[in-house]
Amino acid sequence: MFAIGDSLILEPAVSRQEIRYKCKVMELSDDQIYIDYPINEITGKTEFFVNGTAFKATFYHQDQNVYMFQTELSGRKIDRIPLLAIQHPDEKSLVKLQRRQFIRIETMLDIAVHPSDTVFIPFTSVTSDISAGGLRMALPAGHPLKEGMRIICGVILPMNSGTVHCLRAECNVLRILEHNGKEKVSVHFSSIGEAAQQNLVRYCFEQQLAEKKKLLNE
């Protein structure tokens, strides 16, 4: 079910706001998954959690589907690096998610932003992460975006085969976030063609496999 190097996204089971933490599977036992310290996707910092903290965890499986399970922090372990232990789920408790709920892959891709229902001058930027349901990108100074705005995004996807796909999607601006004086925006794909989504799923899968192989070779 799990393998060393797999990425997990943890979300607190009880929270008034959307908070996501990324981590990797470092060790496995029959009843525990040992992960590195989770990093807040927005701040880029690790946070402290007490034993018993409940999480909703999602992961990308080799069958190219994404699954969710409920777990909780059950302990700590110091190996080469400090690790956290979360409860290993029973396969029957896994919930298969829809494609638009795929976990995010950190990647810098060229992106062009065009207006949809509000007039502004198109601009270019780079993504910081992407999934089959949306993306996050850096915003230039003086950008025209506002939360709730509808935009059109064009993203270049370089595949391992050498083929380059141009993804075009209608998007909704969800949140504009500021950190260390720089702004990023999270957008949701409100309309994306089936072929484009398939290419994006494949790209995310290739990137995750590459990251996993890199970790195993370290």
CATH class value of the largest domain: Mainly Beta
* Number of domain units: 2
| CATH architecture identity of the largest domain | Beta Barrel
CATH topology-level fold name of the largest domain: Thrombin, subunit H
- Mean pLDDT comes to 86
Number of discrete helical segments: 1
Structural class: mainly beta
Give the neighbour order of strands across the main sheet.
1-2-3-7-6-5
CATH superfamily of the largest domain: predicted glycosyltransferase like domains
- The parts where pLDDT drops under 50 for at least 5 residues are none
Overall radius of gyration: 18 Å
Give the termini separation: 22 Å
What overall geometry do the principal axes of the alpha carbons give? globular
Main beta-sheet annotation = 6 strands, antiparallel, barrel
